[in-house]
Amino acid sequence: VGVAVNGELYTALAEMEELLETESVLITNLEGYIRVQEDKLSLLKNKMDEYQREHADAASDITAYVSNPINAYLLTKRLTTDWRQVENLMEHDVGTDFLQNLTQYRNVLKFPSDEDLNGAAVALLRLQDTYQLDTSSVARGKLNGIQYSTEMSSDDCFELGRQSYVNNDYHHTVLWMNEAMSRMLEEPLNQTQTFTRADVLEYLAFSTYKEGNVESALVMTNELLQLLPNHERANGNKRFYEKEIAHQKEMKKMKGDD
Amino acid sequence: VGVAVNGELYTALAEMEELLETESVLITNLEGYIRVQEDKLSLLKNKMDEYQREHADAASDITAYVSNPINAYLLTKRLTTDWRQVENLMEHDVGTDFLQNLTQYRNVLKFPSDEDLNGAAVALLRLQDTYQLDTSSVARGKLNGIQYSTEMSSDDCFELGRQSYVNNDYHHTVLWMNEAMSRMLEEPLNQTQTFTRADVLEYLAFSTYKEGNVESALVMTNELLQLLPNHERANGNKRFYEKEIAHQKEMKKMKGDD
Q: Measured between beta carbons, which residues in chain A are less than 8 angstroms from residue B123?
C-alpha cells in the first residue's frame, strides 16, 4: 500500500490474479472429488439400510427367519453376489483421478512459495504499523471502521504470529498470538484447528521474555505446564526464567545496596 | 420345508444362524467405513465452503481484492499452509482399516459358497413347485396370502432366473426372468442394478426357445437387437431362430402334402 513503486505493484497484482486462478482450479477439483465420494457413500448407505432392515427382521426371530426358504435364499444371496458388489464398491477408490490432478497442478499452476507467505505477512504487519491499527480490528478485517476484508480465523492469526516469530519480530508475535488465543475460544466448533492452546502459550511465553517481561513469560510457561506437565522445552524454559528472575532480583538488591 | 430329515434341517438352521452372525459383523464394519468417510467429507466440505465464499468475494472485484494486504495474506495462506492441509486430508485414505477387515473376515467368518447359493435357489424353486405357488406371489414374499418374508428385488428375481439357467432349468428361468423384468420397471430409482433389460431378454429368448417356442424367442431377440443392434450372439441366434422357423414351416408343408 504505497510501499512498492507502480511497476512493482502491477507485477504483484498480476501475480495475485494468477493465484486466484489457481484457487479456482483447486476448488473445482475439490468439488469433483467430494461429489464422487458422496455418490459412492450414498450407494453404500442405501445398501447398508437394506442390510440393516433385513437383518433386524431376522434378529427378531432367528429360527423362524432362517427356516423360511425365501429368507434362506435372500440371506445366502446377500452374502454372496450382493456382498461382492458392496466389497467392490468399498474397495473402488473413486477419487484417484482427482488426487492425480493435485500432483499435476503442482507442475502447471502458479503456487505461492513459503517466502511469498512470509512476504505477504510482513506487508500486512507493515500496514498495521504504518496506520497504527489495533490487532483485533485488523483480525476482524476492519480498517478505520470500514469492513475491508473477511474476518481472519484463529488459524490466520496464529500463522501471522508464527511468521513474525520466524522473522525474530517478537512484538508482532505477541500481538498475533494473543489474538489467535482469543479467537480460538470463539471457535469451539473448529475441527481443523492446526494448533493447540499449548502451542500459542509457548510462542507467547518466549516472545514475551524476548520483549523483556520475564515474569509474564514464567506465568505463561506455568500455564503451559499445567496442560502438558512433561513438556521438555517448557520445563527447561521454566528453570531458565526462574533463574533470570532470581538474577534480576539480585541485581536490584545490589543496586539498592549502592 | 419337510424335504430334509430333522437332523439335516437342524444343521442347515445352525449354518443359517452362523451366516446371520457374519452379516452382523459385515454391517458393523460397513457402518464404520461409512462413518469415517462421512467425517472426512464433512471436513472437506467445510473447507470447500470457506474457499468458495472467499473466492466469490474475490471474483466480484479482483483488483480491489488482491490489492488489499489482508486479502493478499489470506489468499497466499490459503494456497500454502491451508491447501497443504486440504491435500493431506484428501490423500489420507481413512477407510484402510475397514478394508483390511474385509480381507480378514474372509478367513475367520463363515461365508456361503456359490454352491450354497445354488442350493438355496433350488430349495426355493422346489417349494414353489410343491405348493404350486405363482411366481409373483413368491416374489412379493406372500405364500397363500400370508406375508412370509420381505419382498424380492428385481435383482433377487434375476439371480433366481440365472441360477435356474445354470441348472438347465429353462422353465423356472422363463418364470423368474419375466418376474425380474416386470419388477425392474417398478424400480426406476435402483442405482445398483446388476443387470440390463438386454441381459433379461437374452436369457428369456434362449430359455423360451429351449421350452419349444421359437417364434417368441425370435420376437424377444429382435427386441434385444433394437437395444443392442451389434450384439453378436443375438445376431447369430436371430439367424438360427429364423432358420428353425423356416424349417418348421417346411416340415408342416411336407406333412400337409402327405
A: 69, 72-73
- Is B238 within 8 Å of B225 (Cβ atoms)? yes
Give domain A114-257's CATH architecture. Answer: Alpha Horseshoe (1.25)
User: How far does A27 lie from chain B, in Å, by closest CA?
Assistant: 7
Tell me if B58 and A194 make a contact (CB, 8 A cut-off).
Answer: no
Q: Say if B187 is an interface residue toward chain A (CB within 8 Å).
A: no
Q: Which amino acid is at B15?
A: E
Is 0.95 surpassed by the pTM of this model? no
Query: In this complex, is the C-beta atom of B52 within 8 Å of any C-beta atom belonging to chain A?
Result: yes
Interval B75-129: pLDDT, tens: 999 999 999 999 999 999 999 999 999 999 999 999 999 999 999 999 999 999 9
Report the amino acid identity of residue A244.
Answer: E
Nearest residue to B205 (alpha-carbon basis) of B214, B196, B197, B194 = B214
Q: In this predicted complex, what is the ipTM?
A: 0.87
Tell me the CA end-to-end span of chain A in Å, nearest whole number.
53
Task: Give the model confidence (pLDDT) of A78-129 as tens digits.
Answer: 999 999 999 999 999 999 999 999 999 999 999 999 999 999 999 999 999 9
A 10 A CB-CB count for A111 gives 15
